[in-house]
Every structure is written in structure tokens, then in C-alpha cells.
Amino acid sequence: MSIPFLGEECFATAGTWASIPATMKPLIHLEGKVALVTGGSRGIGEAIARAYGLAGAEVAIASRKKQGVDEAAERLRKEGITVEPYACHAGKPAELDALVESVIKRFGRIDVLVNNAATNPHFGPMMTADEPAFDKTFEVNVKGYLHLARRVAGHLVDRGAPGSLVFVSSVVGLAAAPLQGIYGMTKAAVISMTRTLALELGPSRIRVNAIAPGLIETKFSQALVNNEDISRRILDRTPLGRVGQPDEIASAALYLASDAASFVTGHTLVVDGGMTIA
Ligand code: NAP
């Protein structure tokens, strides 16, 4: 029996997700779950929010700019997804605390966290990065991820509920990448954070996994995609020979959050068209 990738196929054949007997439901769904996705106003975060929503989750999305996150919520609602937008800076602990409180107030709980919002203010050699750029990159990409993970994991432990934390890292956390050294250090830290939190939270039935995307077509990667020299060099060593799309990261995030990955924790799933195998 083939397992439908998203709930959509079931909607098409059986009318509504709720009408499908529990025994027939595929493992890859998030029905009854509440998910919080940071950086959810566009790119990979919006694609993850969409995949989670179509798979049955109620979704909270957050990003700095209220207008951007409101517009994303509108797009998702038009697709039948239950979603609430929040303005929140991922590098500011007080705003992250307020975010968690607001989401719990609105939906009653959080079952799945996707730490996805990240920044890369210094595109250049590590030798030339100034301290403010260094601090900002670590504040958002490392301290912000850990702060939010701790808040959501604490909430899950208090409830005695199982949960799933998914951290968006990068292939540059696994291998050296020119001009992205500071950012790469933060993404390597995310992989380390994933493993240690998985170790610490496993006994509480909280799974923690990361995704390491290769080059994905978003606003964030525009400088790389539009730089012919860099993108040619990346594509030359990518067996699939193309840039990836946000949906291709969303499907990995859906798998990791769902019961299909019930015995997977501490793992970093590389989704890069094969770029890092050679
Ligand atoms: P994107 O399209 O630029 O989206 C970034 C999202 O994060 C937006 O919603 C943005 O909204 C939000 N954001 C940025 N800084 C924030 C902050 N300080 N606080 C809260 N929200 C913030 O980027 P993307 O490519 O989807 O990137 C998502 C994740 O994938 C990042 O972790 C990135 O490192 C990782 N990644 C991307 C690629 C790639 O090739 N695209 C490859 C590897 C890894 P606001 O501007 O409103 O805040």
C-alpha cells in the first residue's frame, strides 16, 4: 500500500481527513497537533507551515515583520489551514517568551516546534567579520534556537506530553563554505544542540532533529543563486544538478515531526540534492 505524502490525496479520495478511519490513516500526518514555526512568513518556514497545516496541524507562524507574517497567514488560510500569525524577533528572549505564552493561550498547547528563523549579516571571509555581526548571528541562530527550544520543551515536560523539535540547520554546518564561515559556525552549533537536547529530552518522549538544507531557492539565498560563479560551483558538485525548492525541505520537516519518525532523534537529515556526498 502506498503511503500518501500529504493529507491532500486523502481529501481528494475520501472527502475529509476526519472521515478516514484511524487505522487507515498514514503515519505522516499531524492531525490534533499544534505547531509553532519561526521564520514562517516566507521561504522554507512558510512551506513548512503549509505542509503541517495540510497534514492536519493547527499552526502558529512567527517572524519579525507583522505585515509579512499576516500576509503569509492569509495565503495559508485560503488553503483551509488554521493559522495564527505573530510578530517576534527570534534573537530577543523576552519576545520569544511572549510568543510561547500567546500561542499556548490561543491554541491551548504546543506539540511541535520548528526553529527556522535565522540570519547571516556577514557574507565574507571570517577574518573580516566584525563583532556586532558575529554577535547578531549567534544571538538569532544559536541563542534564539536554544531559548525557544527550552521554553517549548519545558512546556511539554510540564504537560507530560510527547513532542517534536525540528531545527533548520544547513549543509554549511557540516562542511566549510567560502564567505559563510560565521553563519556556518552557528549552523554547526545547531547540529550539536540537536544531538545534546535529543539526549537530554529523550526520556521525556521529546524527539529533537535537524535538517541540513543545501541551496534552496528563497530570498535568503538570492545572493548565492544570483552569483553565477558561486551557483555554478555548487551545482557542478550537486548530483541532482539543480537548486532545491522550499517544499522539498518542508517534506523532510513533516516526516521528522510526524509519527513516521517516532524512533528518530538526534539526527540531522541532509536535504541537498547530493551536494555533500562527494
Ligand atoms: P527566507 O526566505 O529569507 O525567510 C526567512 C524567514 O525568517 C522570514 O520569515 C523572515 O521574516 C524570518 N526572520 C529572519 N530574521 C528573523 C529574526 N531575527 N527573527 C524572526 N524572524 C526572522 O529564508 P529561508 O531560505 O527560508 O531560510 C530559512 C532557514 O533555512 C534558515 O534557518 C536558513 O539558515 C536555512 N537555510 C536556508 C538555505 C537556503 O539556501 N535558502 C540553505 C540552508 C539553510 P522577517 O524578515 O519578517 O523577520
UniProtKB/TrEMBL annotation:
SMART domains in UniProt: PKS_KR
InterPro entries, per the entry: KR_dom, NAD(P)-bd_dom_sf, Sc_DH/Rdtase_CS, SDR_fam
Matching SUPFAM superfamilies: NAD(P)-binding Rossmann-fold domains
Superkingdom of origin organism: Bacteria
Pfam families (UniProt xref): adh_short_C2
Domain Ketoreductase: 33-214
PANTHER family: DEHYDROGENASE/REDUCTASE (SDR FAMILY) MEMBER 4, DEHYDROGENASE_REDUCTASE 4
Family: Belongs to the short-chain dehydrogenases/reductases (SDR) family.
Protein name: 3-oxoacyl-ACP reductase
